[in-house]
Amino acid sequence: MRIKIMKLHPDAIIPKYAHPGDAGMDLYSIEPVVLAPGERKSIPTGIAMEIPDGYVGLIWDKSGLSHRFGLKTLGGVIDSIFRGELQVGVINLSKEPIKFDKGHKIAQLLIQKIEIAELDETDEISDSSRGDKGFGSTGK
After folding, report:
1. In the CATH scheme, what is the code of domain 4-113?
2. What is the pTM of this model?
3. What pLDDT was estimated at residue 86?
4. pLDDT under 70 in the chain at which residues?
5. pLDDT of residue 111
6. Which residues contact 88 (CB under 8 A, 6 or more apart)?
7. What is the rounded CA–CA span in Å between residue 52 and residue 31?
8. Strand runs (DSSP E) across 1-140, as ranges?
9. What is the DSSP letter of 51?
């Protein structure tokens, strides 16, 4: 698969896979950012892309940033018809400020095939072994 990508800023870094076999390609900050504890921000990447019809871009945490520093990505669905700048919504869940320099990795982007579901309204749905048991239904 080939995806068209456009730099909206001359210093933008084109996303790339760090290792062969990686599911996600790294996204980079186009500007320095400091996130106070509990603070949310949208971090610009300086890029726009043309995701093919039938696919979606999903923005996910970088494992090291989430585990070591408490950085969590927010709302990362990039539809194939979106042509604007990719921005990464993040929140600092730690008790310390998190600082990114311009050009630092901030998240990862996965490109995945999607299925478009057709919904059939009904008056009942079939039972299952789980039924309507929700959170905690599998025990400790």
Report:
1. 2.70.40.10
2. 0.89
3. 98
4. none
5. 98
6. 27, 29, 42, 43, 45, 59, 73, 76, 106, 107
7. 28
8. 4-7, 25-28, 33-35, 40-44, 47-50, 55-60, 71-74, 77-78, 87-92, 98-100, 105-113
9. P
User: Residue 122: its pLDDT value, please?
Assistant: 96
Domain boundaries, given as residue ranges, for the chain: 4-113
Q: CB under 8 Å to 109, separation ≥6 — which residues?
A: 15, 24, 25, 26, 27, 57, 58, 59, 60, 78, 86
Output the pLDDT for position 134: 79
Q: Left if phi > 0, otherwise alpha if psi is -120 to 50, otherwise beta: which for 21?
A: left
Q: What is the chain's Cα-based Rg?
A: 19
How confident is the model over 66-100, as pLDDT tens digits?
999 999 999 899 999 999 999 999 999 999 999 99
Give residue 23's identity as a one-letter amino acid code. Answer: A
Residues in the chain: 140
- Residue 69: how many other CB atoms lie within 10 Å: 17
39 token code pair:
């603070």
